[in-house]
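Now for today's protein.

===
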Amino acid sequence: MHCVHYKRLPAKVMGLVTIMLLAADIGNTQTVVGVYQGSDLACMWRLATNPATTADEVRVMLLPLFESAGLALSDVDRAALASVVPQLTGAWCRAIRDGAGVEALVCSAQTAGSLFKASYPNPLEIGADRVADAVGARSRYGEPVVVVDFGTATNIEVIDAEGFFVGGIIAPGLQTSAQTLFSRGAQLPAINLTAPGDPIGVSTVTAMQSGIVLGEVDRVDGLVRRIFGQLGYEGTVVATGGLAPLIAPHSQTITHVDGELTLEGLRLIADAAER
């Protein structure tokens, strides 16, 4: 479990109660949980995803996390979820209902409303994480903007100069590709995913690191250049996801790293739903 604590805000600001929002990005490999007080991210946790987790287990997991940050789950006023694991969506909704007494907003192209404009044949098939990424990216970086989300899959989302989600690319993620190589290559060891100093490996380990890590860098850069070629113009490229800090320093196209992007999109969608 990875935990990031931000500045704790007071429960009341100038006599007004600060709204507390629980935002959760439930991915196939990791789940990122954030707590907002107003528009400020108070803390964030990155957890392993287990598709078999029950609602009771989710609630039991959340309680000590909140306590470790000096917060209480019962103080949550609102919740928003982006889930790509259907069997966990209901479990999280029930856990939040039981623990905080609120109904969670489940992110989709429909629930995002006017924040998510799509020039796409079937917007309802777009994954919740992709919707939240697009909303967060437009708000923070304007348009056009390309989001590269490094997770179980490497998702690339494209927002054009008019602010419309026009599509994207889904490819096997860095760890997914690496695990396939480890499992299929009898003489290939499992390695740490770090970038080697030079592209030409001088050992099995550095050769694999070059192929896996630098190969991912060049794949993303090549795809982004193709996207720019199709659009006819360039734009901001934002990397997010757990492995973004590994890839971005070696990329020629990524301009920003934003580990909070999906959560920020969820916050904006939740705020809009309250208006």
About this structure: Residues 5-16 have pLDDT under 50 and may be disordered. The two ends are 35 Å apart (CA to CA).
